[in-house]
Amino acid sequence: MAPIYGDVLCRALVICVVFSLFWTNTNGMYVKYSREELLSLDPEHSHVDHVGISISSTIFAGLTKPTNSQDNTQQAGNRAKRSRGRRAGLLVKSRRVNNIKRPPLPTLLLSNENRLFNKTDELFSRLQSQKDFRNCHALCLTEIWLNNSHPDGLVKPPGFSIYRQDRDKTTTGKQDGGGVCFMILDKWCTNVKVISSGCNKNLEHLTIKCRPFYLPKQFSSLTLTAVYIHPAADTKEALDHLRDIISNSENKDPDTHSIICGDFNQANLKTVLPNFYQHVTCPTRGINTLGHCYSKMNSAYKAIERSGLGNSDHSCVQLLPKYIQKV
Prior knowledge:
It comes from Plakobranchus ocellatus. Residues 64-86 are annotated as: Disordered. By secondary structure, the protein is of the alpha+beta class. It folds into two domains: 2-72; 90-321, Deoxyribonuclease I, Chain A (4-Layer Sandwich), CATH 3.60.10.10. Helix content is 32%, strand content 24%. The chain contains eleven helices and 14 strands. The strands form three sheets. A six-stranded mixed β-sheet has the order 5-6-4-3-14-13. Helix 11 links the parallel strand 9 (222-228) and strand 10. The longest helix is centred in the N-terminal third of the chain and has 28 residues, at 2-29. The chain starts with a helix and ends in a 6-residue tail after the last strand. The model is unreliable at 50-60 (pLDDT under 50).
């Protein structure tokens, strides 16, 4: 038993020696500072009543910052704070509730359908699933290829009212093709009146007057005109006829705001009405801009290209209002 007690005693002595050495080294790491020494380190705050502190020299050395860091901290404090806000952009603005229910100008969707009847499923699906389509207040569709055998209920999306002008076979001599229509969102406007419509071999048009639930004071109404000019039509005769239609509607209501949109092909409305501005800047078929939208305000709309419906070779164009009302 004696050897066992000897081993225990040796281990206890070793532990005591190691502990005594560690305690001695630890006490040597600390430096005591007097009150005057601490106040001399920061003369700007010498009026603060400090007390005696025992702190490690290594830790205290790490608390001091170089002069460059102090300058950077001071510059960051003097820098103006960035104000927090909402995302910007016309597309984001058009998605807000107030701009959906009370827009200064309607959000438009312009599209050449090339037969609407076989694209109604995709149109209904986009209006239901895509918010940007659903928030459009008016859809202007050309080349709908409809006739008396197609009732409105088959092509009208839920929540919209439809106004259409089918191609007249007797005046055009063509059996299929053509036709224009407007689909108006019921939440935006229910007071809609057809003031002009017609179809001949050069021009197919439909003009409606809308008095929505909300309208800026500088406008008494909105006059929307859907246009389709055939590629082989007499452009000069078609534009002259269209100019007379627009002039007559504005003479009857001088305070109305006229918006003319549709498929113009090679025609340009500014040649007969130079006070109107073209808002579609993106291509609608290949590299060509065949779809146009005109109004009397230069900064009324911004055009965004969307994919076409079904197998149509024309792109859709969404027109977002840039106009900021004055009153």
